Amino acid sequence: MIKKGSEYGTMKETWHASLVEATRTAEVHSKMSNQLSEYVVEDVKDWKRNRFHKDILSWKETKKVEVAFAKAQKPWAVLYGRVQRAKKAYYNTSKNYFSLCRRIDEFESTVGYSLAKVQKEKEKVLRVEGHLHRAQIKYKSRLDDLHNYQEQYVIDMTREYDSWQEMERERIAYFTQIYEHYARSLDITQFKNLDSIYGEFERVIKRTSPLDDLTWFSQHHGKDMPRSFPQYEEYAGNSNEGVQMLDKRVPSQMSGSDQAYFKDPATSFGGSSYPPHMDIDINLSARLNPNPLSHQYDIPDPPDTETDLPELPGLDEADDWLPAARPKEIGTKMKALYDFEAEEDDDLPFAAGDIVTVFAE
After folding, report:
1. Cα(78)–Cα(68) distance, integer angstroms
2. Residue 129 · residue 101 · CB < 8 Å
3. Which of the residue ranges 36-40, 147-151, 223-227, 276-280 would you say has the lowest mean pLDDT?
4. 3-state class of 317 per DSSP?
5. Which residues are within 8 A (CB) of 45 and not within 5 positions of it... i.e. 6 or more apart?
6. Bridge partners of 340?
7. How far apart are CA 205 and CA 13, in angstroms?
8. How far is CA 22 from CA 14, 15, 27, 204, 266, in A?
């Protein structure tokens, strides 16, 4: 990229130094990545592989802790459920009892109340009062059972909790060690050449000089480059001098492309005295027209008199100065086996059975 780019001089060196800095810094990052992979990533994978084993829907170790906690909590949960049901029954019976008592008070406060109806309601109150007493006793009994088991519940849950805490303590201690390796792997001070990388880069940047670059460019491609204007030269009888007379600068004064162009015509372009793109046109013209002069690009007008004709071999009349007629090209005749419809503007459509002359494939 630097060689084929447009930069030159000290700025070209700075561009190159930036790529060198990037490459050397990338090497440092690559070493850091390798350390992370060796001391951190692989270690964590091994730790996980040895301590956690995959189950159908979860990890076996996680499932084991959940089951242990559920087993320790289950007896207490059963007693707690009984307390809740007894409490609910006691509250519902109490609600019914106080509702009947309010109804009796309402009947007795009504003028002309029925003694038989009041007596009937009082009998209901007595029955509900018996239910209330039993519900209250049951509620207190269930609560006593729960309180009696509470100490054992605390012991069981504490045991399982401590077991889980030990596993968690090991995990936290392990990852503390892993993060120490992680920090050491990312510590750039361990790379002693890091200062030299940026130090050299800064020195190259400080050496960059716009004035020196512009002076160099002016001397090689600008107004201060060596000048060589065309001068009159007498014809020396050598046909090749017509090409060499285009530029009389010595090779050291020419640019790279000029030196390549003005070498020996016999070797500059693979044995041709013309550039490759001109050589193609000349060969094509010579193949289509046998006349050796018909390939010239500037064809002069025919002379007025026969005496004015130049003495050139193979030309006896003025008509020979004109381009020769293009010879008829003979192609290969082929018969179409199927119909073809033109898909592009320059396609030739034909039908099955048509005779087509093919000049080139």
Report:
1. 16
2. no
3. 276-280
4. coil
5. none
6. 350
7. 9
8. 12, 11, 9, 14, 47
Cβ atoms 65, 97 nearer than 8 A = no
Q: What are phi and psi of 25, to 5 degrees?
A: -65, -35
Measuring CA to CA, which residue among 140, 144, 168, 162 is closest to residue 72? 162
299-321 pLDDT per residue, tens = 444 444 444 444 444 444 444 44
Residue type, 238: N
Alpha-carbon distance of 361 to 350, in angstroms, equals: 17
- Specify whether the CB–CB gap between 333 and 354 falls below 8 A: no
How does DSSP assign 47-77, residue by residue? HHHHH--B-SSSBHHHHHHHHHHHHHHHHHH
Instruction: Record the tokens describing residue 237, joined without a space.
Output: 């009888």
Q: What is the pLDDT of residue 348?
A: 84
Bridge partner residues of 334 (DSSP): 356
Which residue type sits at 158? T
Contact 8, 16 (CB under 8 A): no
- Residue 9 sits at φ, ψ, to 5 deg, of 65, -145
Rounded mean pLDDT of the chain? 75
Distance CA 226, CA 216 (A): 13
Report whether 212 contacts 14 (CB < 8 A).
no
Please name which of 51, 59, 79 lies closest in space to residue 152, comparing C-alpha atoms: 79
Place of tokens 């060690």: 177
For residues 12 and 207, the answer to whether their CB atoms sit within 8 Å is: no
